[in-house]
Amino acid sequence: MKKKTNGIALALLMLLLCPNTLLAQNTENARWYVGLQGGPRMAMSTFSSFGADKTRCGWSVGMFAGRQLTNIFGIELQMNVGKALMFPRDCCLQDSWLGQDGNHYFSPVLDMPTLPYKDIMSKSTLFDFGMHINVNILPLFVSSPSRWSVTLSPGITAQGSKATIYQNDNHSKFISRPADWHLGLACRLHVDYAVKPDVSLGLYTGLSYITGDGIDGFPRFYHTANTIWDTGLRITYNFKKGGRR
């Protein structure tokens, strides 16, 4: 019993000391930075970039600016714009029709243009504004200075979407859906390398989970997913302490 009590006390002591240790990290690395990023974008809703026949990538480009507070913690603002291509999944290929009124039907409707899900696709323009908390986890395991950084970046986003539905065979527009806004939770992983003291190159990947109506413009019938997957390259320009070169 005594050993168990000592173990609990030691665990509590570590929990109390760890935040102070992290907050006491080297603040000499504090700096402002800006950068550009971009790469392929995929999305999953009722339709998906991982369609029944094959996978199709969209694209995304953006800019970011932030403040590295210590060698571990930072805060970052992002703005991105891109496009996702989404096609029907296996479950949507039978007995599913989209009317020109934007509703789901199980068969063609008289006196209104309707198309089967298997013959249409969604192109969705997506733009987001996000705020992220960056946590460089590398100093937690490596004490010596390094040109590398491995960063977990959870955040919240305001996501705009504008979907248009096209026919597959001739790429003619079937219906255009109204623009919509969503809230989202995001988490990214960055791996960066400082090629110069003021320039870093890196890779990123991350998921965003979006609320509200489908970003593909389809009625919510088969699926409730609303997920965006971004992967790409980052280039970061670091300012000296005080924000000036």
What can you tell me about this protein's structure?
By secondary structure, the chain is mainly beta. It has a single domain, classed as Porin (Beta Barrel). It has 1 helix and 13 strands. The protein has one helix at residues 2-23; strands at 31-39, 41-44, 59-68, 73-86, 97-99, 104-105, 114-116, 120-136, 148-167, 173-176, 180-196, 199-210, 227-238. The strands form 2 sheets. It has an 8-stranded antiparallel beta barrel.
Keywords:
mainly beta, Porin, 8-stranded antiparallel barrel, 1 helix, 13 strands
What topology does this entry show?
Blueprint: H1 2-23, E1 31-39, E2 41-44, E3 59-68, E4 73-86, E5 97-99, E6 104-105, E7 114-116, E8 120-136, E9 148-167, E10 173-176, E11 180-196, E12 199-210, E13 227-238
Antiparallel strand pairs: 1-3, 1-13, 2-13, 3-4, 4-8, 5-6, 5-7, 8-9, 9-10, 9-11, 11-12, 12-13
